[in-house]
Every structure is written in C-alpha cells, then in structure tokens.
C-alpha cells in the first residue's frame, strides 16, 4: 500500500481538527498576549502583562474558581448518588417501569435557560410560590436568591434537578449492560441486597461511574446559564463562577485580551485537574 | 338669490375644509395607525405624511435594539409603520441589555456593519462615536430637534457633534405613594410614633426613616404586606446608576467644581471619599426595607414592584412612575414625583471636611441612545427611520406607555396637558412636569461617566457596591477596593485619555457647556 495514501484519508479529519480546535486555541493564546479592549481595538503585543495581572492582582478570578469547584463537585456528587438510586429503582422489575424512566428524563429534555427562569420565579422571595407555601405552614420567607450562602444552595438545587437525569441515563444504561452471572453467583451464595450492591453492582459499575462523573464534572465546570439567569452571580459575587466571570470581562467589559488570558488559564487548570481527578477516581473505584 | 346662496355654501364649505384640514389630515393617519389616535399625525419633517412621500422599496434597513418591551417594542412598532409608509423592508433584532454594547462593538472593530442602526445607552458614546455617523445637519436643524432640551442635546453629542439621535430622555427622580404620604391619618400616626413629619422626603435620611417605618405591613389595606422601597440593587443590572443617584447629594458639592467621579486635575478617583461612603452606608441600611429578595431587583423588578403597588418609594428612571400611572395599574393616580432626596451635608474635597447645609443634585443618568453605523450603506434611510421614530406624534404616544421606556426629553413634554390628556390627574401631572423641569434648571447636576473604559469603571463600582450590599465587605472597604480598581483601569487606559474625555462631562456639570 502506498504510504502517502494514508495521509490523504487523514486530511479531512485533520483539517477539521485544526479548524475547530487547534486554531481557536492558538488564536486565544495570541489574543491573551494582547491588550485588545474597547479603547485599543487591535491585536497589539503586550507580552505576559495579562498573566501577571491574573496571578498577582485578580483575586476575584480565583475566588470564582474555588466557588466553581465547590459548586461542581457538590452538584456532581449529588447527581451521582440520586441518579444511581433512581437507576437502581427502575432497573428492578417494578410496576410502571417505563413510565418512571421517561418521567425521570424530563428535566434533562427541557431548555436550561427556560427552566432556570421558572425556578427563579419559584424562588422569588416575595412573589414566588415556594415562600408562599412555606408561609402557609408558618415558616418565614427564605432568602433563596439574596443570601450569599443560601443562594449557592439554590444554584445547586437547580443544577441537580436539571442534570441528575443525565447521570441516571448513563448509569441505567450501565446497569442494563452488566453480565448476569456475578449476580446469579451472589444469589446462590445467599448475599443480601446490600452486599450484592457493595461487592457486585458497584464494582462492576465503577468504569461507567467514572466516565459519567468525569463527563458531568466537565459540563458542571462550565456552569453559566443557571448562574446568569438565577442570580447573575449575586448577591455580591456569592455565586459568580469562572465562566460567568470570563463572560463579564470579555463580553460585558469588552476586555477581550484579558478574557482570553482567563480562558486559556482556565482551560489549562481544567485539563490538569480533571486528569488528576480521573486518575484518583480510577484508583479509588477500580480494584485490580 | 339662488346663485348667492350657492356661492355662500361653496365658500363656507371651502372655509370649513381649510379650517378643519389638519384634523382631517390627522384622522387619515390615525385611522391607519391607531398608535397615534390621541394626537393624529402632527405635521413636521418626519411626520407620517412626510414619510409616506419617501420610497425605499427594495431596500432593507437592519436594526439592533433591546429586547421587548423596553425600547424593543417601540423600535419594532415604528419599524412596521415605517415599512408600510416607505415600502422599505426593516429587520429588527432584539438583544438583551447586557449584550447591546458587545453586539455592536465586535462588528464595529472588525470594520463591518451588520446593522445600520444600533441601540445602546448614551454612555456608550465615547466608545462608539468613532464608528457612528454624525447626525446630518438637516436633522439637527429640524423643528423637532429644536425642541429637545439642551441637557439631552449635550448627552447625545460629543464636543459639539451629535452622534446619537435623541429618542429618549433620562434622569433619576423620586417616586412616592401620594395616598400614604399625603394621608392625614398616617401623618398623625407617623408624628405620634416618631416625632417627625410625614412628608415628601427631603433627604436620604428621611427617605430611610419613612421607608423603614412603612416596611413589612399592610398599609394600603389590600390584604398584602407592603414594603419601604424598591431599588435597582442587582449587580450588572444598572445598579451603579442607582448608587450614583444616592451619592450625588453627599458628593456633588457646588463649591468644588472639577469632577464628581474623579478630580479632573489629578485624576484621583473620588468614589471612596466620605460622601460616597455615607451614601453606600445608607444603601446597605436600605436592604432592610426593600421587599424580600429586593437585593436582587433589576430595573424590571423595580418597575414591577413600585408600579404594582408593593412599595412606598422608588427612585430611578421614569418607567416605574409611568407604569404606576397606566390606567390598569392598582395605584393609578396615587403616586407623586419629586426630585431625588438631598442631604444635610456634602463632602468638600478641597477642605477635606463636610460642608453643613442642605444639598441636592439631580442625576441625568444615561438612557437609551441610538446611532447610525458609519459603514452603513443605508444612512439616509436609517436617519429617516430615527427621525420618524421620534416624530412628535409617535413621541407623544410613546411617552405615555410605561413599558416602552421612552421618556420626556423635549420642552413640550414638560407641559402638564400632555399628561392630563392621557388620563393623569392634574396635580400629579403638574408635580411630574415640575420635577423634571426643575432638574433641567438645576446648576448642580451630575452627568453620567462617559470616558474610555466606562464599562470597566462602572462594573468595578457595581461589584464593590454589591459586595457591600451582600455584607461581604464594609462600605469603606468596598469603595476602597473599587477606587483601587479605578486606578488600575486608569493606568491601563491612560490618565490623559480619560481626563480628556472626562473634561467634557465636567464642563457640562460645571455649567460651562
């Protein structure tokens, strides 16, 4: 076979890869070395000035990053636990199994922005139905969106509601693909349902669980629409996440060069941290 | 005799036609366009009649405007009318407020013109003007433009060149529930409980005391709790404008010209001086008398809250007041307007001390503004559209609809009859126009910051103020943080660049322009 023919077949894929992945990253790096903003609209070269600013004089970015870490880790853990429980529930032979499977998937099928608007209406402190219902049973209005601590948990509630079905779907697919023999063996040995879960189901599900957790962590770390609609990062900066902060710097304040610096740094941090998380999870969950 | 009778009848008929022709002319257009049914068409260079003589068939006008309803709805409505009259095709794109700047700026910087007309805020002028076509002389000299107040001509212009076509006039002022403040029973009760007079608040301290008193109880007997004040407190949702309004009385000292935001000489940010800190301290206290969740109120929430009868006070743009005066409002004809409260002391940055005595400073906050892209290929049609948008008949109809966000900016708007003819009580209409007129006459006005990097300055201030409101920082620490960021921005943009631009605003504030 002519060796060069292989490259001919590779070109279309390579071309697409360069166009949609490599070029934007290289452009972002170049932009991050410029001072492009509303009053200097040009790709000038200012060296690593933006990076120095980020690492020495922008605590707000780092605060938003740690806040994002808290939000994404908490939401993904909750989504995994709830999603797994729901998947186990409909994995068994129960009545209306198909109905429940569809019902559990509905939140994921809705548009996040529209659902967040509805959640915002629910949680509206003076006009929303949640506080109204609580008031009927004598509970004082809760500051769902105005208290810096509670607002974080409100964001978590909405995220968990929206994305648990995704976790549920992946885990249910995993459960349905498990071999039957280990479960038969455990049943012959007289293992209790709990022991069956701990020693058979969970270990067999570990590779799928790691994949599901990593996919959701990647998605959760990009959380933007929920924060944008629900709290706009407030009160104060209490729910501001990295992506929302980058959006503010880039498209609100039009500091394109600096926003590119933030984006590239964020990308590097995410690649490193998600690689570490995947390795740690593999070590913890998969026993050789 | 018969002949004489016929002659008389014909003469009478001709006379009647001549006398009543304007009415017939008006009816012709208001039948077709019910939006102007109150006034009919009003003759002018950009009236319905004049536009109907233009032919833009086969041409397309592209407009980027705000989301519906505020400014987005009148843009679309007038686009539809303009298309019917001229044969043009008008494409209207609606964009959220926060993205208006970038949506125009990205193609501007790339040398493109996807939109012939771009809507934004008047404080974009310094960043946008190099990409906008100055308003041609023939429009500047038109009769309808001659009626625009000097303040709003100033807001739409830069160094004497008009870049933005005036379609809206904006200022912040106080709105209050007249049925409470003027209620003799409440006046007696308030006096008995606090020892003070219940009246239209003269100072921010009075405002706070009254708002706190009328907070969290049902004072209008509708079975629902009411609250003290509705304010724009949500970060990134125009809250910095609300903060400037609260700061003006404490920090705009007529004895110390030369800058409200910066000291023009040294370009030192003034936003962390004791005047601003006092205002932010008041504002933090206000979080206790806003409705639950009020700390997250954007402009829409504020309009809905006060306009829906939920609070005693509010201050910001006209919209909440006009919404409250809509015929279907629960508080129709129960509201009053007054200038922003003042303060009993004002910071003197020269003597570094407080000057005691009453001080008041109206804030001519930025508002909706619109310009024509320099690279547009349809400039004439674009300016005709804007001129039609703001023609007298459209303008009079638009200002009476709260959700449109079109507010008074013409001398004629300051006549009470304009408002009584749309159903306002005479005393309310008079208090409203009197408030607006007095702001125009004031010699201690504050104009919005219009310098390179305006967005960065305002965003830094809003973030700091939001931190104080959320209890994350003290008012002094928050404003110190904002001042530090302002210095960083100054260094990035260049002090001289900012000074040069800021001097235009300072000249307006110091009554030199």
Model description:
The complex is a heterodimer of chains A (288) and B (513). Chain A has 288 residues and is mainly alpha-helical. Chain A has one domain: Orthogonal Bundle (MetI-like fold). Chain A contains twelve helices and no strands. In chain A, helix 3 packs antiparallel against helix 9, helix 7 packs across helix 9 and helix 11 packs antiparallel against helix 12. The longest helix of chain A is centred in the N-terminal third of the chain and has 33 residues. Chain A is globular, with a radius of gyration of 24 Å. Chain B has 513 residues and is of the alpha+beta class. Chain B folds into two domains: 160 residues, 3-Layer(aba) Sandwich (D-Maltodextrin-Binding Protein, domain 2); 257 residues, Periplasmic binding protein-like II (D-Maltodextrin-Binding Protein, domain 2, 3-Layer(aba) Sandwich), CATH 3.40.190. In chain B, 46% of the residues lie in helices and 13% in strands. Chain B is built from 22 helices and 15 strands. In chain B, the strands form five sheets. In chain B, strands 2-1-3-15-4 form a five-stranded mixed sheet, with helices on both faces. In chain B, strands 8-11-7-12 form a four-stranded mixed sheet, with helices on both faces. Chain B has a two-stranded antiparallel ribbon with strand order 5-6. In chain B, strand 1, helix 3 and strand 2 form a beta-alpha-beta unit. In chain B, helix 11 runs parallel beside helix 13, helix 12 crosses helix 13 and helix 20 runs antiparallel to helix 21. Chain B is globular, with a radius of gyration of 24 Å. The N and C termini of chain B lie far apart (69 Å). About 2% of the residues of chain B have low confidence. Classes of the chains: A mainly alpha (288), B alpha+beta (513).
